[in-house]
């Protein structure tokens, strides 16, 4: 194992070398990866990072992965785009989009977390891996496992979008559709991982999985010219991504790659599944589980594993939370597509809709640098737009028919 990190219990400090464990058996506290940031600081610099390949492994000193052969190349380093047209529409002068709808290979930020978790699984000797998923994680596990020659088990609620189901099965993964909510699927996955001794990325490999999310924060800072933004808006399901983005920013400061700067972290959820946002808005420190009912299936986790930590991060950063109804989610998808040419999935609709409200309420200042995390690709969730866009009736193939349509669409009699 590297001298730069260890798997440890943050409560009692006990180490768990070479193990896939999530909870400390002594204090039942979730384990996390702890870095020797003093040592990392000696080895990493902007020049070292900039000279490396453009993927998540350019920050290797801050990732718990070795050896190099276990790493899937090409994951991450997605565009950070200035939102020249969406910004004015939302009322934000300095708006950026971190576009993980373009992440390799399965078009969501889950490729980052799976790259780290499966590299760890291989190092720990697992040849069967799996996950409980709301869709994107399953796609990523299936694809990465195929490339690595691992057998994959993907457990999902049976009502997912067809692109997410087909987009798992196509890689030869064992797709297990379960009649139930994500939270029921997740409990089943925990039992299976233990009984079969498989590497489940968001169960027994969770401390490693969560680390992959930090790379979004590393890239945002580097792409802004090695500085931190004022605000970031992140969609939340289990809450892992939001908490790790905050940690990622802090680690960059701690190792001297960026100057210290407060970043307000805002979490976005669908109204029909908003346990974390609701708790935040009610001023509660505890998350009360919900039964999801929303078109945003990717964020439909009613009992979020990192919910409490997400509440603490949002509060400590001076950020906040918000939620969006199904019609607002659809509108958010369309506004993003029409103004920036980016087709985000339902989670992106949530993020855009919540960001718009945060700017309107003055929670996000108009002149501040704000980054919206676009975490997944809308080609996977197109059915939420079925019946909501005008596709036009088919035309006869004649110029007269076209000109009649032209006049109609231009509003000319
Ligand atoms: C597209 C997308 N965005 C955001 C999330 C939320 O991630 P987390 O569970 O880390 O909060 C998910 C989770 O599945 C997702 O699929
Ligand atoms: Zn402990």
Question: What tags apply to this protein structure?
Answer:
alpha/beta, Rossmann fold, 2 domains, 4-stranded parallel sheet, globular, binds pyridoxal-5'-phosphate, binds zinc ion
Total DSSP E strands: 12
* Highest-level CATH class of the largest domain: Alpha Beta
CATH topology of the largest domain: Rossmann fold
Give average pLDDT, whole number.
95
Category by helix and strand content? alpha/beta
Low-confidence stretches: none
The hetero molecules present are: pyridoxal-5'-phosphate, zinc ion
Head-to-tail CA distance between termini: 74 Å
Shape descriptor: globular
Tell me the number of helical segments per DSSP (H or I, 4 or more residues long): 15
Strand percentage:
5-15%
Which sequence of strands runs across the widest sheet? Answer: 3-4-12-9-10-11
What does this entry look like structurally?
The N and C termini lie far apart (74 Å). The mean pLDDT is 95. This protein has helices at residues 37-43, 46-50, 86-90, 110-123, 136-148, 162-169, 182-196, 206-212, 214-223, 240-254, 275-281, 307-317, 326-340, 346-360, 399-409, and strands spanning 5-8, 32-35, 80-82, 94-99, 128-132, 151-157, 174-178, 199-200, 231-235, 264-270, 320-324, 369-374. The protein is of the alpha/beta class. The strands form 3 sheets. Strands 3-4-12-9-10-11 form a 6-stranded mixed beta sheet, sandwiched between helices. Strands 7-6-5-8 form a 4-stranded parallel beta sheet, sandwiched between helices. The longest helix has 15 residues, at 182-196. The chain is built from 15 helices and 12 strands. Helix 9 (214-223) packs across helix 10, helix 11 (275-281) crosses helix 12 (307-317) and helix 13 (326-340) crosses helix 14. It is globular, with a radius of gyration of 21 Å. It folds into 2 domains: 80-106 and 213-385, Rossmann fold; 110-210, Rossmann fold. Strand 6, helix 6 (162-169) and strand 7 form a beta-alpha-beta unit. The site of zinc ion has 8 residues, from loops.
């Amino acid at each position: 194992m590297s001298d730069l990190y260890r798997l440890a219990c943050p409560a009692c400090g006990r180490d768990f070398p070479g193990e896939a464990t999530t909870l400390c058996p002594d204090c039942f506290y979730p384990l996390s990866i702890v870095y020797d940031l003093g040592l990392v600081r000696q080895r990493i610099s902007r020049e070292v990072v900039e000279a490396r390949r453009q993927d998540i492994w350019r920050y290797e000193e801050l990732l718990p992965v070795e050896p190099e052969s276990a790493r899937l190349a090409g994951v991450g380093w997605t565009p950070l785009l200035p939102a020249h047209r969406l910004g004015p529409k939302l009322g934000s002068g300095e708006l950026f989009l971190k576009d993980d709808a373009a992440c390799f290979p399965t078009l969501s930020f889950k490729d980052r977390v799976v790259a780290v978790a499966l590299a760890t699984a291989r190092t720990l000797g697992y040849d069967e891996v799996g996950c409980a998923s709301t869709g994107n994680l399953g796609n990523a596990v299936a694809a990465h496992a195929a490339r690595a020659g691992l057998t994959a088990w993907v457990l999902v609620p049976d009502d997912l979008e067809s692109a997410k189901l087909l987009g798992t099965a196509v890689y030869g993964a064992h797709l297990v559709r379960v009649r139930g909510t994500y939270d029921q699927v997740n409990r089943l996955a925990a039992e299976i991982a233990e009984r079969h001794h498989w590497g489940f990325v968001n169960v027994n490999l969770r401390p490693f999985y969560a680390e992959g999310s930090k790379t979004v924060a590393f890239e945002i800072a580097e792409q802004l010219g090695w500085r931190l933004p004022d605000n970031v808006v992140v969609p939340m399901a289990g809450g892992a991504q939001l908490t790790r983005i905050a940690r990622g920013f802090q680690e960059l400061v701690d190792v001297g790659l960026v100057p210290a700067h407060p970043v307000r972290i805002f979490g976005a959820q669908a109204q029909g599944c908003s346990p974390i946002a609701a708790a935040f808005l009610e001023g509660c420190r505890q998350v009360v589980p919900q039964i999801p009912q929303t078109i945003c299936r990717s964020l439909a986790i009613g009992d979020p594993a990192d919910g409490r930590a997400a509440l603490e991060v949002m509060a400590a950063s001076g950020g906040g939370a918000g939620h969006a109804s199904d019609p607002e989610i659809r509108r958010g998808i369309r506004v993003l597509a029409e103004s920036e040419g980016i087709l985000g999935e339902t989670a992106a609709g949530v993020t855009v809709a919540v960001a718009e409200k945060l700017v309107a309420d003055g929670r996000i200042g108009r002149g501040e640098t704000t980054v919206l995390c676009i975490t997944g690709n809308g080609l996977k969730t197109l059915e939420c737009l079925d019946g909501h866009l005008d596709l036009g009736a088919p035309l006869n193939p004649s110029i007269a028919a076209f000109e009649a349509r032209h006049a109609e669409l231009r509003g000319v009699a």
